[in-house]
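Researcher: Sequence of Gluconate transporter follows. Predict its structure.
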Amino acid sequence: MAFFIVFICILILILLLTWGKLNAFLAFLVVSLLAGFLLGMPVNTITASMQKGIGDTIGGLLIIISLGAMLGKLVAESGAAQQIANALMKAFGPRYVQWALLIAGFIIGIPLFYGVGFVLLVPLIFSVVYQYKLPAVYIGLPTLAALSITHGFLPPHPSPVALVTTFKASMGLTLLYGLIVAIPALLIAGPFFARYLKKIPAAPAAMFAAEDKNAQALPGAANSFLTALLPVLLLIVTTVLTYAVKQASPETQRFIAFAGDAPVVMLCCVIIATFTLGICQQRSIKSVMTIYADAVKDVAMILLIIAGAGALKQVLADSGVSKDIALVMQSWHIPLLVLGWLMAAVIRACIGSATIAGITAAGMIGPMLLTSQTDPNLMVLSIGAGSLMFSHVNDAGFWMFKEYFNLNLKNTFLSWSVMETIVGIAGLLGVLVLNIFISQ
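Model: Prediction complete. Tokens:
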């Protein structure tokens, strides 16, 4: 009976989001209350359970996601993202322009949220298409695949950060493993797959052609690269140091652990960026703070959606149904990494949001992870890969790609949806291969 109730609640959630067009945060709250009633929880404990779920979920994410948004917004507004792309284009030349854009998408995608990166890179893609008279989908899809992969696999993006917190994984190790898994997935879903898309007709509107900006106003290339990649570099360095100083004094170990804590890393990066991309570029502190305020507005709804998913997760946990589901699923004899991927993939296909799919699957798989030997860092990546599977008509990214590139539905499915599916499958295979080496 409990399984039927959970199925009905998930179905209602999907209908509220798709057919009812309800805001995701409101939908999660409604379904959380309904789940509590149907699962027999005392009525005076349901709201308390929801509040605990919201607090536990958002408490560890608020700093990281907010600071990540601030950094990404400043990278975009300062022209650092444009400088990165320009430097790569100059280094690779017209012959390898697709690779230049792909690397630019990957680098820019690490600090920028997906929607911001998409809107930022599309004009650059079209300017290259116009300049070199190249097929738009062939050139553009690998770049957007890089954005999608960083969104699903790598901190400080909301879903990976939320999963790291849920599974008590290591932010640094998850980032390292994520880079190892992401690169092969990107090569397969990007340049390799795009070779078969050269004949897809696309007519990007001329209004999207990027305007040339004054190069003198842009920050330097070294400054742009280092500031954008600083969170990644610091997390990797502190993670390596954690293992390198195991014989050091407890004080040294505690300091390195503190310095490598994700909120501390992100705060340091934002402070540094305030100077390197703000004050040193003749921007006033007030204007930089305005950029930061706008960035937080951009991610406010993301934070609320994550909070709503946390409320539903806690209701399912407190009702005991999560443990029941965990016990039944354990009898399926499916490796936990594959099961987490499958759950996220199904929810993604039904709902369309990678973030919601990842967090909802994490809530269901969490109890099983506690009793298994599965590496929590790999579980983050497995669910992240599943959450990218088969983007279609219920995903905003699907429509952004279709409308920006002026494609029909058939060709959008053949290009965008297939690319996202390749990313999801390649990501899972990469996680399973990595697990072989880690578990030895």
